[in-house]
Structure formats: C-alpha cells, structure tokens
Amino acid sequence: MSTTSRTSGFRAALVLSGVLLALCVVATATARSAGRPYKSTVFHPAFRLELPKGWVVAERGPDVAQIYRRCGRCAHEGEEHGEITFDMALAKLSPAKAIALLRRTPGIRATRVGSVTYGTLRGLGFTARRTGGGFEFPRSGYRSDPTGAPLKVSAVRAAGSTVTVFIDPHELAPARAPAFTKDAIGILKTVRFTK
Q1: What is the per-residue pLDDT for 34?
Q2: Structural domains in the chain (count)
Q3: Are 102 and 181 in the same domain?
Q4: pLDDT recorded at residue 2
Q5: Residue span of the structural domain in which 1 resides
C-alpha cells in the first residue's frame, strides 16, 4: 500500500469521525432542548431541571416539591395521574437510615433495597406495593392511594442532605404506570441540586 492511499484512507476516516461527532452533538442538543429549564425558588436545597412540555413544578414549601403533568379538568390539577415528590422530612438521616424507616411503613409491601441512580442523583431505593389499606410514610406524612400500581421510593444524597424521592403513579391505570415512571425517571436524570 502506498503512502498516498494510506493518507487518503486516514483522511476519509477522520472526515467520517468528524461527521459522526457532529451528529452526536446535534442529537444531544436536540434531546436537551426537548424540555424547558426550571429553577426552584422555594424548595431547599435549590434545584434545577429540564421540564417536559405539559409538566409543572409545585413547590409546596421549603421541604416539599411536586412535579406532575398538568390537567385542567382534574380535581388535583393532574398529580392524581402521577407525580414525583421531593421531601426533606428525613434530610438529617443517611439514605440507608431513611430507606430503612420508610420501608417499614404499614400498608405497603416493600421490595429489597437496591442502589438507585438518576443522572447525578445517587442513593438507595425500593418499590412499594400497595396492600389495599391506607398508608402514610413516617415523619414525612406522604400518603398515597391504597390500591393501584406500585410506587418507587428513594433516598438520595444532595447538597449535604438526604432528599426522599417518591415516584407515585397514584390513580393511573396499571397499564399506563410504566410509561409514567419512565417519564419521571427521565425528568429526575436532569435534576441538579445546589446548596
């Protein structure tokens, strides 16, 4: 093989690599622009996230924030069709101690505890299956419907505190709950907490 053909092969590979890199950059920018940026103003620790079209954040106070798809004709503005809740009631506990406490909640059947990762958020979590009776998680006061699809419960470390994260499909039909959970996890992957 001559030096000229090796050089032109190298150039072709270099050009192809550049084109592929440009396509990746465009795809990433397009994916990121699918949501609109949101920055909290009440909840502590403060957070930023990418909010998909139709979703809203309701900061109920410095210790509770909810994220859900808005529904104008719904009794609870849409949170009854699934919500993500950030709760600071267990902020001073480690994620392991917070999850151990939440897992013992009467009225749920909890799966084993496992590691969770949502973008930069890391911690522990479990799936809570409803048993048909009412339930309320200790200390936080978070409660949900006695029946329906399971909810995901996590405790992640953020900005020096433990944030409890509930991904709750509420009244959604069990067949629609996986799509909601997938959307919720997609949102959580964009969350960045700051001190």
Answers
A1: 61
A2: 2
A3: yes
A4: 53
A5: 1-33
192-193 β-sheet, strand order: 35-39, 47-52, 192-193
Backbone angles phi, psi at 5, to 5 degrees: -70, -35
Please answer whether residues 88 and 161 qualify as being in contact, where contact means their C-beta atoms are separated by less than 8 angstroms: yes
12 lies in the same domain as 53:
no
Three-class secondary structure of residue 12 per DSSP: helix
Residue 55 and residue 71: Cα distance in Å, rounded?
Answer: 9
Q: Are residues 26 and 64 in the same domain?
A: no
Domain CATH number, residue 102: 3.40.1000
Residues in the chain: 195
Which amino acid is residue 109, in one-letter code? R
Peptide bond into 45 cis (omega under 30): yes
Run means of pLDDT, 10 residues per run, the chain, 195 residues: 49 40 35 75 97 95 95 75 95 98 96 97 97 91 92 97 97 91 97 92
Q: What is the pTM of this model?
A: 0.81
Question: Could you tell me which of 100, 103, 126 has the C-alpha nearest to residue 113?
Answer: 126
